[in-house]
Amino acid sequence: MAGDPISGLKWTHRSLRKLQKALRRRGLGLALATIARLLHDRGFSLRTCRKQQARLQDPERDRQFRYIARMRKLYLGKGLPVISVDTKKKELVGNFKNPGHTWRRRSRKVLDHDYPSWALGQAIPVGIYDLGHNDGYVVVGMSHNTAAFITAAIRRWWRVVGQRRYPGARRLLVEMDGGGANDPRKWLWKIALQRLADETGLILGVTHYPPGASKWNPIEHRMFSEISGNWAGEPLVSYETILKYIRTTRTETGFRCRACLDRKEYAARQRAAPEDKVRVRLKPHRVLPKWNYTIWPHRPRPLRK
Questions:
Q1: What global pTM score does this model have?
Q2: Which of 129, 164, 197, 244 to pair with 102, CA 20 to 30 A apart?
């Protein structure tokens, strides 16, 4: 609590031992356990910083959240697939330190530096979380996080899981954030979606979370957090290790996850060709069209009899 009472600036960090020494200087000899108990009695406890404040507060933020909720309810009510898609942070593959603790008899020794040149490669996990069935599918890439890579992951999920689970579906709703390779303002992203729609025959409805609000994407707190907890404290020494930890992620609510490795090399820094832009069949929604739109295939998916 020490600091400037007017500006709120605090620059003193008092551990239990520092408090004990300060109390001794005032003639009070207290044990560390007693000091901890007195702090707890006054509402103090060891706490961490929480990432909850968004620097970017778009004025249409709340309206977009309500629209995403309405679209999700509409699709799920009709038995149509709704997926939450995002890219987890890149991981170095090798004997590197991974934050977290594990129950062991001895500490595991890892490399003293996290140099990328020491790694076997990098892992780029793209996740697809099915909101209607509470399960996930992760494609681990090895090259670059591009629009083509993200849509390739969605294509794999659809061929392996989606088309069997939703045999009569002609529409798919995709929820995702609005930055990076899936920026709705980029033509490469729209072209990649058009190719996905043409290959699957699906009408793709896309809704983006506002800037600074990607943490509210369901995949973040329903899937990625569970995966991070499952491999916490364990070095990701190989791609097979990463896949095994993802596949063995479980929750008490029944969550399960599949995983596969994508060895394809995706080229970075591509430029959109004019002829590809013309082929994009994009229909913006009436509500916040900069974040909500539909991609129509050139040939719709035929209905199964």
A1: 0.84
A2: 129
Residue 85, beta-bridge partner list:
128
Which amino acid appears at position 211 of this protein? Answer: P
305: confidence class by pLDDT, cuts 50, 70, 90: very low
Give the distance from CA 237 to its chain's centroid. 22
Cα 100 from Cα 231, distance rounded (Å): 8
Q: Does residue 117 sit in helix, strand or coil?
A: helix
Q: Which residues 6+ apart lie within 8 Å of 217 measured at CB?
A: 84, 86, 175, 176, 177, 209
Model confidence at 229: pLDDT above 70 = yes
Residues 79-125 have pLDDT tens digits of 999 999 999 999 999 999 999 988 888 999 999 999 999 999 999 99
Structure tokens of 159? 């061929």
Around Cβ 49, how many Cβ atoms within 10 Å? 5
**C-alpha dist (Å) from residue 144 to 126, 147, 150, 182, 261:** 11, 10, 10, 13, 13
Q: What is the pLDDT of residue 12?
A: 64
Tokens of 270: 């591509």
Number of Cβ atoms within 10 Å of the Cβ of 63:
14
Tokens of 288: 């916040």
Task: Say how far apart CA 127 and CA 226 lie, in whole Å.
Answer: 12
The DSSP bridge partners found for residue 128 are 85, 137
Smallest CA-to-CA distance from 206 within 297, 140, 149, 285 is with: 285
Instruction: Give the model's pLDDT for residue 250.
Output: 94
Tokens 């070095």, residue? Answer: 235
Instruction: Say how many Å lie between the first and final Cα of the chain, rounded.
Output: 69
**pLDDT tens string 145-160:** 999 999 999 999 999 9
